[in-house]
Design brief:
heterodimer; A: 2 helices; B: about 270 residues; about 0% strand; globular
């Protein structure tokens, strides 16, 4: 097969393209987040998951230790079942708690794991029982208004009956 | 196919007739183009035995577009860096400049601008080449020798375009990100660590980079095929070739923008 100069230039062109692809994948994208470490699956039930999405991170002490794989609605308990995969390198006690937290004030939501004190660790397919749902802004506001109304009502009541 | 209406009496009937003729001609043309597309795909099998044909075309279509794509990418990156910075300072989020530049490029600007430039540079040269082959009766001569012009001339160029477009789009995006970095960090003073870490946190490999890649492949097929079809169906005169070249650029650009909308709606809707 005769080699010609054209082959070299075309090969160079394709190589530069592949290098650009590599640069994009490693430096620009979050390929480092796509880890191939072995994982185990754990599930948890929440009353309200707020804005949690699948593939959101699972963090403990702020460090990403896993990802959420699926979110399903359980119509026997009327709760949301969240299945997450945690890297095998990190073991959590059986009584760990899972909270839904928000990064920043209005950022994306993630699950925060806090380790408990049990000696036995969560196994593959285990369930986290201590959970705290997401904070829904509307509930917070209505709670605040209700408290405010209750306070002013109490003040008015005090001044009226003259017990102040 | 019906002839243009020649009624001398009623201008409205003339107009309707012309309009009907226009629609029919375009629909027939679409059908013919679709048939030719599938014929070319089916007859591409022989290219595995002669890959030299494809790589020669990649030189003409890809290598020779390399300079314009790289320089354009650099300047688009510069502009994105500047404009992005000016807009982000309004909301106090200058640190997100890297994210803005990278997402704009990988999702939209990389594939689309590369496709438009590719249509202008490589598309027109393909159309002109095929049109001149047709005008010089080379295609008919090939058919006389029982060499299928679709297999020998069109198919290598189509595959060269499909291969070269994603490569060019990736190069454009990468150079654009570097251009944004050059303007943002040394020139303006955005923090280098924030630039890259925000970008890496926000650009997803499968959702953004892969989708941009798929877009560039689709645009490559569209632009290259429109260029080849216009050349193949051009009138075999010098004016015919020049008309075909203009039509290539116009049709390819419109097709790229329309396909971009469709693909974005399909890929990025939540």
């Amino acid at each position: 097969m005769k080699k010609s100069a054209i082959d070299i230039w075309v090969g160079l062109f394709v190589t530069i393209g592949m290098l650009a692809m590599l640069f994009l994948a490693l430096k620009v994208g979050n390929m480092s987040a796509v880890s191939f470490a072995p994982t185990y699956t754990v599930s948890a039930r929440f009353d309200n998951i707020g804005g949690l999405k699948s593939r959101a991170p699972v963090k403990s002490a702020g460090v990403v230790v896993g990802r959420i794989s699926t979110i399903q609605f359980d119509d026997t308990t009327y709760q949301a079942t969240v299945t997450m995969t945690i890297e095998k390198a990190y073991q959590f006690p059986k009584d760990s708690s899972a909270k839904i937290l928000t990064s920043g004030l209005l950022g994306e939501q993630y699950i925060g794991l806090e380790a408990g004190g049990d000696e036995q660790m969560l196994a593959d397919g285990g369930k986290i029982t201590q959970t705290q749902s997401a904070i829904v802004l509307e509930n917070l506001i209505s709670q605040f208004l209700y408290n405010k109304a209750a306070d002013t009502g109490q003040d008015k009541g005090d001044t009226k009956s003259g017990t102040k | 196919m019906s002839l243009k209406s020649t009624s001398k009496t009623n201008p409205i009937t003339n107009l309707l007739g012309d309009f009907g003729f226009f629609i029919r001609r375009n629909i027939t043309g679409l059908g013919y183009a679709a048939r030719m597309f599938f014929l070319v795909l089916m007859r591409s099998g022989g290219l595995f035995k002669r890959p030299r044909l494809v790589s020669d075309q990649i030189l003409f279509v890809g290598n020779y577009s390399f300079v314009i794509i790289t320089v354009s990418g650099l300047f688009v990156g510069f502009v994105l860096g500047l404009q992005g910075y000016y807009t982000l300072t309004r909301y106090g989020s200058e640190q997100a400049l890297g994210l803005l530049v990278a997402l704009s490029l990988t999702r939209e600007l990389g594939p689309v601008i590369t496709a438009l430039l590719f249509a202008g540079r490589a598309g027109t040269s393909l159309t002109a080449e095929i049109g001149l082959m047709k005008a010089g009766e080379q295609l008919s001569a090939m058919e006389m020798m029982a060499v299928d012009p679709l297999r020998r001339v069109i198919a290598p160029r189509l595959w060269a375009g499909i291969i070269a477009m994603p490569i060019l789009a990736t190069i454009f995006t990468a150079v654009g990100v570097l251009g944004g970095y050059l303007v943002g960090v040394p020139l303006i003073g955005v923090d280098s660590g924030a630039f890259w870490s925000q970008m890496q946190g926000g650009v997803d490999l499968f959702d953004d980079i892969a989708n941009g890649f798929i877009k560039s492949v689709v645009f490559g097929v569209a632009v290259t095929f429109i260029a080849l079809y216009q050349g193949y169906e051009s009138k075999p005169t010098p004016e015919g070739v020049s008309q075909a070249t203009t039509r290539t650029v116009v049709l390819s650009s419109l097709a790229v923008l329309a396909l971009d909308f469709l693909l974005t709606a399909m890929m990025f809707s939540n």
